[in-house]
Amino acid sequence: MSGCGLIILYTCRQKAAVEQRMEKPDLNIGFIGAGNMAFGITKGILCSGEGPCLEILWSTLFPPWFQELGVAVTHSNTEVVTASRLVFLAVKPHLIPRVLAEIAPSVTREHVIISVAAGVTIATLEEQLLPPESVVLRLMPNLPCMVQEGALLFSLGSRAGPQEGAVLKALLAPCGLVEEGPEVWIDTHTGLSGSGVAFVYLFAEALAEGAVKMGMPTAVAQRIAAQTILGAGRLLRDSGRHPAQLRSDVCTPGGTTIYGLHALELGGLRAAAMGAVEAATERWFMEVQPQISAINYRSVFGKYELKYYILQSYLVMGGC
Questions:
Q1: Residue 189, in any domain of the structure
Q2: pTM of structure
Q3: Helix spans in the chain (H)
Q4: Is residue 115 packed enough to be buried (19+ CB in 10 Å), middle (13-18) or exposed (0-12)?
Q5: Looking at the structure, do residues 219 and 163 belong to the same domain, yes or no?
Q6: Which residue has the higher pLDDT, 202 or 297?
Q7: Any binding-site annotation on 32?
Q8: Are residues 19 and 39 in the same domain?
Q9: Where is NADP(+) bound in this sequence (predicted)?
Q10: Annotation-wise, does 34 bind a ligand?
Q11: Domain membership flag for residue 204
C-alpha cells in the first residue's frame, strides 16, 4: 500500500436517484485515503438511506469509525481501481504521485477519477500523473458532509462531460449542497467553506459566552447558539434572499437588534470575516503548493515513471 491512508472499497446499490441517473443497477465506488474528507463523503452517501451496501469485506487494520459505516476495506490501491468505476483520491497532496504511479496501469477510459487532494490541479493529474484520456474531476468538500449538511464544489476536467458531472452531483446530493464551477473557485471555496466552518464555531462560542455573561447557564447558551445559527442558515439558504434583506427584517427602529449590530460593526466583525476568508485562502496557497513541488514523468511502453520531491519537513517527520 502506498501512502499513509487506508483504502476503503465498497459497492453500493443505490435504488433511487443515483441508480436512475447512472442507469445501472450497481454503482461501484472506491476511496483511496481514509481521512476526514473521505469519511465525511462516505458517511453522507451511506446515510441517504437509498440502499444497503453489498459485498462487505473486513480488514483488521483500519480506523474504528469506518466499521460503523459497514464498508469493505482493503490494503491494495489497485484493488480499489479494478473493482470500482468511480475512484476518489483522498490522500495528502505529497502522496498523489506515489499513489498514481501505482494505480496508473490499472486506470482505463471507463474510470472516473475524482480528486479531493488539496492543491493538485486537474492539469497536473491529466498531463503528468494519469494515463492519456483519463476522465478527471476535482472536488472540494467540507466536514459537515458527515451530517449531510456539507458544501461541496467540483470542477470538470477536460475530458469530463455533463454526464460525469450529473452523476457526481447526484451521488453527493445526500452530503449537502453540491455546486459546479471553474477550478479557480476551489481554493477560495476552501477559505470560505472549509475554514469557514471553524469561523462559524468561533462566532457560536462568542454568542454563547455573551449569554453566559448575562446570566444564562453555559450548556443552555451553547445549545441555543447552535440552534440560532442552524435556523438562520436554513432560512438564508431556503429563502434565496440576500443576507442584508433578512437582517433588515429582524431590525426595528430603536430596537435591541440594531443596537447589537452596531456593536458588531464597531468591533469590526464584517472586515474581520472578510479578512479571515482572504487569509485562509492565501495560507492555502502557501501551504499546499510546496507540497506538490517538482513532478517529472516519462512514458515507457504505456507505464509511467514518476520522479518527485516532497517537502523536507515531511522527510524529517518520517512521513505519516
A1: no
A2: 0.79
A3: 17-22, 36-46, 77-83, 96-103, 122-124, 162-172, 184-189, 196-213, 218-239, 243-250, 256-266, 269-292, 312-317
A4: buried
A5: no
A6: 202
A7: yes
A8: yes
A9: 32-37, 90-93
A10: yes
A11: yes
Q: Is residue 299 part of a domain?
A: no
* 90 marked as binding residue: yes
pLDDT at 90 over 60: yes
Residue 142 marked as a ligand binder: no
160 is in an annotated binding site: no
What single string gives the DSSP state of each residue in 114-135? EE--TT--HHHIIIIIS-TT-E
Per-residue model confidence (pLDDT) at position 65: 67
Annotated binding-site residue? 35: yes
User: Does residue 2 surpass a pLDDT of 70?
Assistant: no
Tell me the per-residue pLDDT of 177-224, one tens digit each, with 9 for 90 and over. Answer: 999 999 999 989 999 999 999 999 999 999 999 999 999 999 999 999
Do 201 and 178 share a domain, yes or no? Answer: no
Question: Is 103 labelled a binding residue?
Answer: no
Structural domains of the chain, count: 2
Q: Strand pairing of 53-54 and 7-12?
A: antiparallel
Longest dimension (CA), the chain: 76
Residue 263 sits in which domain range?
A: 195-267
Can you give the CATH number for the domain in which 209 is found?
A: 1.10.3730.10
For strands 135-140 and 53-54, give the pairing: unpaired
Q: Length of the chain, please?
A: 320
pLDDT averaged over every residue in the chain: 80
More confident residue, 143 or 57: 143
Answer yes or no: is 28 a known binding residue.
no
Q: What is the pLDDT of residues 304-318, one digit of tens each?
A: 333 333 233 333 333
Regarding whether 232 and 115 lie in a shared domain, the answer is no
Is position 301 within any domain? no
Q: What is the pLDDT of residues 139-149, one digit of tens each?
A: 999 999 988 89
